Amino acid sequence: MPKIVYLDAFPADNALDILKPHAPGLEVVRIGRDQPLEDSFAALADAHAYQCVPARDEVPEPLRIHREFLARAPELLVVSSGGSGVDTFDIDACTEAGVLVVNQAGGNAEAVAEHALGMMLMLLKKAPQSDRALRRGWNGARVEFRGADLLGKTVGIIGLGHVGARMAEICRSAFRCEVLACDPYIARADFAERNAVQADFEEVLTRADIVTVHTPLTPETRGMLNAEAFARMKPGALFVTTARGSIHDEAALAEALESGRLGGAGLDVWDTEPPAADHPLLGFDNVIATPHTAGVTRDSRERMAEYAATQLIGLMAGGDPARPVNPEVLPRYRARFREILGG
């Protein structure tokens, strides 16, 4: 019988409801982050699928998917991320072991795009500055907080996947923005379909009034937004990221804000999550900060749980993955599937 083990950090209420009708043919086991590791690995020793989450602060290091973990789960066929990110997964180790990695890309795209849009609007309207001034007892002239409209601005999108494409659609359709996007993994013909004009990284930085980041964290993107990149942005431009911490250099961003080079920043992701209360970026009045909550809405959590459950049900029945992260592993994965589960 196929066995699915899921980590308690995964929002699984409706996922379990979806799995219930398949219960006679599936064993579903929950492990807790706070329970003894030996108990967790006892459950994982004969598991065929492991449902994890991508947020680094929510998964104890031993329960992240790496070579040591895989060695202790020899029958594992599939590891599934609760979102689109795979920060807690060693993809190379999974591929070497013949383990398929899947995610739930697109499940929280609306939530993340709306969050990024909200940050953009609030920064343009100088809402963080006015909010903090009022809390300090401000009694001045309203013109001190004169902002700007989003209408007609140039928005630069780095990463035109599910979230980036939704951002482009909103900005172009609702606010008549010029939308520039860079993404080396999107075919040239697809940019127009995704409501954006293809541009290189340099052009996005130098032309955009607002730069918003929607890429995964990879060796290629780590530290991509560094001091040199911030120096190339338009004076007074806004920087927003709801992607992953470590794609932008936090010290370099703080310096760009301190110097007045940038007009403000909206930050949902951090090198260390949550950031310390004395983090330098939290000291700026023109910074909106949230603790990696862009994708954490009731609607998105239900959607991602549904995506995860239905994908695992299909895979355990011998079907093809809907959202594979390492598709190159499929031939070996299928051979291991036949060997371990038959059919």
UniProtKB/TrEMBL annotation:
One of its GO terms (molecular function) is oxidoreductase activity, acting on the CH-OH group of donors, NAD or NADP as acceptor. Belongs to the D-isomer specific 2-hydroxyacid dehydrogenase family. Residues 117-294 form the D-isomer specific 2-hydroxyacid dehydrogenase NAD-binding domain. SUPFAM superfamilies: Formate/glycerate dehydrogenase catalytic domain-like, NAD(P)-binding Rossmann-fold domains. PROSITE patterns: D_2_HYDROXYACID_DH_1, D_2_HYDROXYACID_DH_2. Transmembrane segments: none annotated. The keyword Mitochondrion does not apply. Coiled coil: none annotated. It holds the Pfam family 2-Hacid_dh_C. It comes from the Bacteria. Residues 33-326 form the D-isomer specific 2-hydroxyacid dehydrogenase catalytic domain. It comes from Minwuia thermotolerans. This is 3-phosphoglycerate dehydrogenase. The keyword Hydrolase does not apply. Keywords: NAD, Oxidoreductase.
